[in-house]
């Protein structure tokens, strides 16, 4: 009888990645972001001082955020989790997981978002995951946190790629970061480099660039993220890496063996908790 019970337990279907986050309502939520101070939110000073906000902007933000729980990207390959300040809809943070097949795979990257003059102007966006200002994760992501994207007006782009106050949304911004920045070969995001994509020497440069990004992703977007999860995203980080445990461990073996043995050892230590 006991054996039968154990068999049933084994056969019990596991809850999928998507179901885990939907069932526990972790996609979108409120957080007292401004209480985190300047070290916890890049735009803290200006957001704290700026108390004026247009009714149009407020209405638009609340309308967009009302659907976040059901429309934010949620997939084992890459997801977007958002927290909004309890009293200021213009103050947000987004945790984006790196897509499969990229040097950002399974890493968690935190972005500070401040919708000043929204929607007339694009949001201000800063990457908080920079290895304490030491790592430039992409030609579009500076080690100071600056995010370069035509949608934000911080990168040259065609007319259709720039911010349109009537049509552009926060969801569009998050998806653009996922698909235009967290790419398979980030080296070619540098203007002009794409023209030489077929060149053998350039491909070697690209692979070398990606290898370095992989190492930094494991160090800062995996290990450091597990050890120091951002406030409000603790459960998201814990569940993401628990569900991805086997995959992340294999990824570490593949990415770090013979290249960063100390990093691999550290990864195994932190993953052992799951």
From TrEMBL:
Superkingdom of the organism of origin: Eukaryota
InterPro entries named among the record's database cross-references: UBC, UBQ-conjugating_enzyme/RWD
PROSITE patterns hit by this protein: UBC_2
Keywords: Transferase, Ubl conjugation pathway
A UniProt-annotated Pfam family: UQ_con
UBC core domain boundaries: 56-222
Ribonucleoprotein recorded as keyword: no
Transferase is among the record's keywords: yes
SUPFAM superfamilies per the UniProt record, alphabetical: UBC-like
GO MF terms, alphabetically ordered: transferase activity
Protein name per the record: UBC core domain-containing protein
């Amino acid at each position: 009888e006991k054996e039968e019970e154990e068999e049933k337990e084994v056969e019990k279907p596991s809850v999928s990645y998507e179901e885990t986050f939907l069932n526990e309502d972790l996609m979108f939520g409120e957080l007292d972001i401004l209480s985190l101070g300047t070290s916890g939110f890049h735009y803290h000073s200006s957001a704290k001082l700026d108390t004026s906000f247009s009714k149009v902007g407020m209405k638009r933000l609340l309308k967009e955020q009302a659907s976040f729980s059901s429309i934010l990207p949620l997939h084992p390959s890459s997801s977007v989790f958002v927290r909004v300040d309890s009293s200021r809809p213009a103050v947000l943070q987004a945790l984006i997981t790196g897509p499969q097949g990229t040097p950002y795979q399974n890493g968690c990257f935190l972005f500070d978002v401040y919708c000043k003059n929204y929607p007339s102007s694009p949001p201000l966006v800063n990457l908080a995951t920079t290895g304490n200002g030491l790592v430039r994760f992409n030609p579009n992501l500076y080690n100071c946190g600056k995010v370069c994207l035509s949608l934000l007006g911080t990168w040259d782009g065609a007319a259709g790629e720039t911010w349109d106050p009537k049509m552009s949304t926060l969801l569009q911004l998050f998806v653009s970061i996922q698909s235009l920045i967290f790419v398979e070969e980030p080296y070619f995001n540098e203007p002009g480099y794409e023209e030489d994509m077929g060149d053998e020497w350039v491909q070697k440069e690209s692979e070398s660039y990606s290898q370095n990004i992989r190492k930094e992703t494991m160090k800062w977007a995996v290990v450091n993220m597990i050890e120091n999860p951002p406030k409000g995203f603790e459960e998201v980080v814990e569940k993401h890496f628990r569900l991805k445990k086997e995959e992340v461990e294999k990824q570490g073996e593949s990415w770090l063996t013979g290249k960063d043995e100390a990093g691999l050892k550290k990864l195994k230590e932190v993953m052992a908790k799951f």
